[in-house]
Amino acid sequence: MKPKLYEAVKMFEQRMQAAFPGATLQVMDAYGGHDVGVELLLPMASIPREARMKIAELAAEIEEEFDVYIGTRAKPHMSGVRRKG
Questions:
Q1: 3-state secondary structure string across 24-43
Q2: Cα 36–76–49 angle (5° rounding)?
């Protein structure tokens, strides 16, 4: 991975973890014309529209700042979610 791309992914990961504590990021092969693909695992039962919009906003900020194109796939996971009761 090129240094610029690595820095972009690290910054994206930091911002994702700040916005979604407990979120994890896995780098994937690039797809669909993206410079890099990332899979995001978010600590929630399902991913609401607002969360998807926040992910897109964070990706856009990084894309503009580093001049890279990030493809994202977000998935919910319950391992970090406490159940009520």
A1: EEEEECCCCCCCEEEEEEEE
A2: 85
Other C-beta atoms lying within 10 Å of the C-beta of residue 58: 21
pLDDT band at 9 (very low <50, low <70, confident <90, very high): very high
Domains of the chain plus CATH, in order, are 3-77 (3.30.300.90)
In 2-84, which ranges are E strands? 24-28, 36-43, 70-77
Burial of 38 (0-12, 13-18, 19+ CB in 10 A): buried
CA distance 67 to 83: 40
pLDDT per position as a tens digit, 23-58: 999 998 888 888 899 999 999 999 999 999 999 999
